[in-house]
Structure formats: structure tokens, C-alpha cells
Amino acid sequence: MARIPDKIRSIDGSKEALKLAVRIIDLWFVGTPNKSEQSEMVFVDSEGDQIHAICKSDHLKSWKADLKENCTYVMHNFKVVKNDGQFRVCEHEYKLFFIGVTVVREANLHELPFKEFRFVEFANVVAGNFVSGLLVGGLSACFIEKYQGCF
């Protein structure tokens, strides 16, 4: 019997043998092509929960042609690390890294949601009610804090 996919919400750093059914809702490349390039992605699952994933240059060669924004996949085996960098693209406490044993298989999972914009009330931005360090629509909370008086 096939194993039921894990939910992004349940990722708590206790296991790395994850099986996820996800849609890549954001995909971008960082670095210099053919040198130290890495891929960064945001996955969404059937519950609408999101998590940041990174494919470093040493694993990117095997996956670059297969990873496409808005496509759906079943993926296994990631390294799970705290999402505690200076800037975060998702609120999830953890992020995922592709490793040598990560498996990616494209799948027709039409029930998975597409990118959903999560707008914040402008009054909350002005009042300072936001998560510091979280990138929101390309702006970081640090930028918003700095220019808060200008709104």
C-alpha cells in the first residue's frame, strides 16, 4: 500500500524521510548560471500550507530541467532545517534542502492549489503588525519598518 503524503503543517524537524505531494508556486534561481547557481522554491500542499525549499548547486544539475513553477510533484527525502535566516519567504518554522537521496516525480495532482496571495490590511502595516524578516510581495518587514512613517 502506498504511503500517504505528509502535510507541510506536520513538518517539525523530527524526521527527514518525508513524502510530500506539492505544487511549486514560486521558483527562482540564485547565483551565476553554470557556476554556483542554486534553486529556491516555495511548495504548497493540499491544505494550502507553504514551505521554502532549496536545491543547492551540487544537486541542481540533476533536477533543474524537471523543476517547473506551477507543476505538481511527489517528492521524498529532504534535509529539514530551521527557517531562521535573516529573511524568510514563508512563515513555516522549517525549510527543506534537496540532498543526494531526494526523489522527485512529476504527478497530476490537480487538486493542489495555485499561488494564493495573502494580502495584509494596510492599517496593520502602518501599525507594525507584521512578522519581522518575512518577505511580503518582494518587500521585507525591515523595509516596511524603516519607511513606516512615510505611509
From TrEMBL:
<dbReference type="Pfam" id="PF02721">
    <property type="entry name" value="DUF223"/>
</dbReference>
<dbReference type="InterPro" id="IPR003871">
    <property type="entry name" value="RFA1B/D_OB_1st"/>
</dbReference>
<feature type="domain" description="Replication protein A 70 kDa DNA-binding subunit B/D first OB fold">
    <location>
        <begin position="7"/>
        <end position="106"/>
    </location>
</feature>
<protein>
    <recommendedName>
        <fullName>Replication protein A 70 kDa DNA-binding subunit B/D first OB fold domain-containing protein</fullName>
    </recommendedName>
</protein>
<dbReference type="InterPro" id="IPR012340">
    <property type="entry name" value="NA-bd_OB-fold"/>
</dbReference>
